[in-house]
């Protein structure tokens, strides 16, 4: 007979590893599978949080707010925190670094010092006050002339509270408004003094604190994470010699060649101004009108229409500095460099139908994924590489290295791994850190310098300029998240929101009244590389900038057939939403310069006759690039196996409890995040053993939110789930999106009812659908893990989908 005893000790672990939903009781598991400081802290935080909340079942002082009792406010009810983790924003608050602090939260204090500890505020055990530190006697009622009389103008407490609330929001970023961020560190592999004197690369093992923000470009602050878009990949290095901001994207090229066109491309892709639609989408007339008349955009279009624009996770995408920069060593010698970030988890993406459905199910999908991974100790890692070349090499390339619509194939200039970045702590406060952080391409340090890339030159101005409005003036560098760890000494003074209190009367240089201080650093400071420059004043571009299609073709021929198929589908989808036929025709004409098959397939998908090829600006033959395998997502499968993969185990009354727990534990042991998914929350009786606790319901956790699914044995559960359309849809979407599926015993009946075939369209067995009898679970789970590590089985994909 089933009992309510909760066994084994990992029951509900998946809920602790998540940030949404959970079992119907508050009992925490004894283990999360792995036993380490992070998992123990996470368990401790979960248990302490539940206990602290339970201690506040009611507000015993509620009656004191009404009638005559309200004339004598009483002390507000409060409970001793006890365990510091109970009120922590993140289990990672004990993860120390020179920027985030010593890892020991000071409860009830608001100190200020060089690290962010000086800006943190904790209210544990503290009396409520005004912004001026005045204790508030009553935070429930405004001051009135009699209990039924008018509110009095003298109520400064009410006015302060409302005024501050009215001004809480600040202007959002013009682009990259939607984003998520994390703290971490960069660790140098080997000193790079021959190439650069930049502080992060000074010696092997040196760690530099970083703050990283990932973002979409087009959408507003509240838009979805999974829109088809470029992703921002901005890293702030808090170096010994000041802040270095490497403000990049997950795509190595850009839409335009010159900053003069930046407002135009942004205006074109943003919601159309007459009706404010669409949100976070390029599938509309104004963007494609601009694109069809701007051939320089062609290479970027190929990337944005690829799966690169719908990453599975911020942890599973590359990052690029986009522009050509200079590295300068201590001798003043310089080479050109492009920066590359490569994720240790590999490069993996969503599929479009999945991305669209995730937007409705969980628009915070990428934000949640990043947060959960860090909270669980599965710290995202990225390897930084230099792509170094000389000016002589640059001259020999068939493209101009100052053209931001071009890349340098890795096969031409290999990557030099120089260090890794680890993100090991979530922010304490989204607004104070993620929203107020300011990344500026102008923020460089000695050893890094600019090239003459005309887009980079404009960004140097624009990124600083935009902060003046968004963050309220020129002192945004004093906001704690933006403040450098390096000492700041200069004669910049005053301005809105100034924090520093400068001693003395001198605010100029040269001076004698302050002993000449602060004094310029000379050769030890930042000195621009003395690149020669001469020529007439002219508005225009170099001749090599006129070639727009060679690298677009390179990208196309470097993709696998699956990736090419997805590019065709993306172009077809986007242009199907465009209303103006001439715009569609121009894009097809443009793509004829890239690949005739691509153009013909797109024309067929849009019901168009193939238009004449668009004339090319350059009269030179297209460069004959060989395929570059590194441009395919499949080139970097990753090194993390099934860690952090979300696996749904469908359960219902009559599930084989022992089998479910065995599979759950096996997945958890290898780093996956399993969850028991059922028709609704609560306990379900099993065919043997203790009841199972459903961790998330089918309506709260549809199939698009999981990387794979397990259908365990249990005839009763199969019958119940078979009558639930949500369960059948769950399986169909898992199949349509090419995800691994493990089906045990009677679970095959549920697969059949959902109409999910176990063979590929060509009749061969589907390698990612493992069907096994109940007696062969161990072998089946091993095969399932292998399929899960491979991410998807694209061989089952058809257009249109057959399920």
UniProtKB/TrEMBL annotation:
Point to the regions of Low complexity compositional bias. Answer: 86-97
A GO molecular function for this record? catalase activity
- Its domain of life reads Bacteria
Q: Which reaction does it catalyse?
A: 2 H2O2 = O2 + 2 H2O
In residue numbers, the region (Disordered) covers: 1-45, 83-111
- Keywords in alphabetical order: Heme, Hydrogen peroxide, Iron, Metal-binding, Oxidoreductase, Peroxidase
For this protein, the record's InterPro entries field holds: Catalase (IPR018028), Catalase_AS (IPR024708), Catalase_clade2 (IPR024712), Catalase_clade2_helical (IPR043156), Catalase_core (IPR011614), Catalase_immune_responsive (IPR010582), Catalase_large_C (IPR041399), Catalase_sf (IPR020835)
Q: Please give the cofactor(s) recorded in the UniProt entry for this protein.
A: heme
Question: What name does this protein carry?
Answer: Catalase
Organism ancestry:
Bacteria, Pseudomonadati, Pseudomonadota, Betaproteobacteria, Burkholderiales
């Amino acid at each position: 007979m089933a009992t309510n005893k909760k066994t084994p000790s990992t029951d509900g672990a998946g809920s602790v590893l998540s940030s949404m939903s959970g079992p119907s009781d508050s009992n925490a598991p004894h283990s999360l599978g792995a036993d380490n400081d992070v998992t123990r802290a996470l368990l401790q935080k979960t248990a302490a949080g539940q206990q602290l909340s339970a201690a506040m079942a009611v507000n015993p002082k509620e009656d004191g707010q009404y009638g005559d009792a309200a004339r004598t406010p009483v002390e507000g009810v409060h409970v001793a925190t006890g365990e510091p983790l109970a009120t922590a924003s993140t289990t990672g608050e004990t993860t120390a670094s020179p920027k985030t602090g010593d890892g020991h939260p000071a409860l009830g204090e608001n100190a200020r010092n060089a690290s962010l500890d000086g800006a943190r505020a904790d209210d544990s055990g503290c009396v409520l006050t005004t912004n001026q530190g005045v204790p508030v006697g009553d935070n429930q009622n405004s001051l009135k002339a009699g209990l039924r009389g008018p509110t009095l103008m003298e109520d400064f407490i009410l006015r302060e509270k409302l005024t501050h609330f009215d001004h809480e929001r600040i202007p959002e970023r013009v682009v990259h408004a939607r984003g998520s961020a994390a703290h971490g560190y960069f660790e140098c592999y080997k000193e790079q003094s021959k190439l650069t004197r930049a502080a992060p690369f000074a010696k092997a093992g040196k760690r530099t604190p970083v703050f990283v923000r990932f973002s979409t470009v087009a959408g507003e602050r509240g838009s979805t994470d999974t829109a088809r878009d470029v992703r921002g990949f901005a890293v702030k290095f808090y170096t010994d010699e000041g802040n270095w901001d490497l403000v990049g994207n997950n795509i190595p090229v850009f839409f335009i060649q010159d900053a003069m066109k930046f407002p135009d491309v942004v205006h074109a892709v943003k919601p159309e101004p007459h009706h404010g639609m669409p949100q976070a989408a390029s599938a509309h007339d104004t963007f494609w009108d601009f694109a069809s008349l701007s051939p320089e955009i062609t290479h970027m279009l190929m990337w944005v229409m690829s799966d690169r624009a719908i990453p599975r996770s911020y942890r599973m995408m590359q990052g690029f500095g986009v522009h050509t920069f200079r590295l300068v060593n201590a001798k003043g010698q310089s080479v050109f460099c492009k920066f590359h970030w490569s994720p240790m988890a590999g490069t993996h993406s969503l599929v479009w139908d999945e991305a669209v459905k995730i937007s409705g199910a969980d628009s915070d999908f990428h934000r949640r994924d990043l947060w959960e991974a860090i909270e669980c100790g599965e710290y995202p890692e990225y390897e930084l590489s230099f792509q170094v070349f000389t000016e002589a090499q640059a001259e020999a390339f068939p493209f101009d290295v100052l053209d931001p619509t071009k890349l340098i194939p890795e096969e031409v200039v290999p990557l030099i791994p120089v260090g890794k970045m680890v993100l090991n702590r979530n922010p304490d406060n989204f607004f104070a850190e993620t929203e107020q952080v300011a990344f500026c391409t102008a923020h460089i340090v000695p050893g890094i310098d600019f090239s003459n890339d005309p887009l980079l030159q404009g960004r140097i101005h624009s990124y600083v300029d935009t902060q003046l409005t968004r963050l309220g003036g020129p002192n945004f560098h004093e906001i704690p998240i933006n403040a450098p760890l390096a000492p700041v000494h200069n004669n910049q003074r005053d301005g809105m929101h100034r924090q520093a209190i400068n001693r003395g009367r001198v605010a100029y240089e040269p001076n004698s009244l302050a002993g000449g201080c602060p004094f310029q650093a000379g050769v030890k400071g930042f000195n621009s590389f003395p690149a020669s420059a001469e020529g007439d004043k002219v508005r225009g571009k170099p001749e090599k900038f006129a070639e727009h299609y060679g690298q677009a073709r390179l990208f196309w021929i470097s993709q696998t057939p699956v990736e090419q198929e997805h590019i065709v589908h993306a172009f077809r989808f986007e242009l199907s939403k465009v209303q103006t036929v001439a715009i569609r025709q121009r894009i097809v004409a443009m793509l004829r310069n890239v690949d005739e098959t691509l153009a013909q397939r797109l024309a067929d998908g849009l019901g168009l006759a193939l238009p004449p090829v668009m004339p090319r600006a350059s009269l030179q033959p297209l460069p004959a690039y060989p395929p570059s395998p590194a441009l395919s997502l499949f080139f970097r499968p990753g090194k993390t196996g099934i860690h952090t993969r979300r696996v749904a185990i469908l359960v219902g009354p009559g599930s084989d409890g022992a089998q479910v727990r065995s599979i759950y534990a096996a997945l958890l042991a290898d780093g996956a995040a399993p969850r028991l998914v059922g028709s609704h929350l609560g306990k379900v009786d099993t065919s043997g053993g203790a009841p199972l606790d459903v961790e998330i319901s089918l309506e709260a956790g549809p199939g698009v939110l999981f990387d794979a699914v397990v259908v365990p044995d249990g005839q009763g559960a199969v019958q119940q789930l078979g009558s639930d359309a949500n369960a059948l849809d769950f399986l169909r979407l898992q199949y349509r999106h090419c995800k691994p599926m493990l089906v045990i015993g009677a679970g095959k009946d549920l697969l059949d009812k959902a109409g999910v075939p176990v063979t590929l369209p060509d009749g061969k067995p589907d390698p990612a659908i493992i069907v096994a009898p109940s007696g062969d679970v161990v072998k089946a789970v091993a095969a399932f893990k292998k399929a899960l590590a491979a991410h998807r089985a694209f061989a089952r994909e058809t257009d249109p989908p057959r399920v």
